[in-house]
Design goal:
By secondary structure, this protein is an alpha+beta fold. The chain is built from 8 helices and 4 strands; from the N terminus they run E-H-E-E-E-H-H-H-H-H-H-H. Helix 1 links the parallel strand 1 and strand 2.
Length: 204
């Protein structure tokens, strides 16, 4: 049994979209929960077994899988026929894994620091900054539809969702804007957003 603990319009929305993209709707039970929102609303849900009360959280036969990148990779490898990951032994698995690690280890810290307006030489040396991060993305997308070329993967799902969720961080770079639009307009993401809207409406 696979269970996803999900809060509407949160980081777990992209995992709901992934479930649709992988065709796993019949295999994954979605358990809506509340979380503490950045504006102070909401709160920790006692139904959520995540040790920090966060989402997404995937449970598979009692095993706990945390963090968006780990969950996305785990699910993609359960449905390899969808082609949203790169299998062990593939020539481009290294670059694929590098993008996933870059999101967690570089982009997300840079975004948090940017939102908090924090600057320090050690931080800049370690993570660089938003201009350098966007330059890296723009370089990869130049002449390509997606980060791995013409194939959409979970790397696109995870990274592009950052800019669709935080539009104030969207760079004025057409290649990045077009890429985010392509990722957001996928039927699976639109289905996830519609599902979230239904959850919000049901909870008043």
């Amino acid at each position: 049994m696979l269970t996803l603990y999900h809060a509407p319009f949160s980081r777990s929305t992209r995992i709901v979209a992934l479930i649709h993209d992988l065709g796993l709707q019949d295999r994954v039970q979605i358990e809506p929960v509340t979380v503490t929102r950045p504006d102070g609303s909401g709160g920790r849900d006692p139904k959520n077994p995540h040790p920090e009360g966060k989402v997404p959280l995937l449970m598979h036969d009692g095993a706990m899988i945390r963090e968006s990148v780990a969950i996305a990779l785990y699910l993609a490898e359960l449905a390899p026929e969808a082609g949203l990951a790169r299998p062990v032994g593939a020539a481009d698995r290294g670059p694929f894994l590098s993008w996933l690690s870059w999101y967690s280890g570089v982009l997300e810290p840079v975004i948090v620091l940017s939102l908090c307006e924090l600057e320090h030489p050690v931080l800049t040396t370690t993570f660089r900054d938003m201009p350098e991060a966007t330059k890296r993305l723009a370089g990869a997308l130049k002449g390509n539809s997606y980060l791995m070329g013409e194939d959409f993967t979970i790397a696109d799902l995870i990274i592009a969702s950052t800019f669709s969720t935080l539009p104030q961080l969207m760079p004025e770079i057409p290649d990045i804007q077009g890429w985010v639009a392509r990722c957001t307009n996928r039927p699976a993401m639109q289905a996830a957003l519609a599902y979230d809207a239904e959850l919000m409406a049901a909870n008043g």
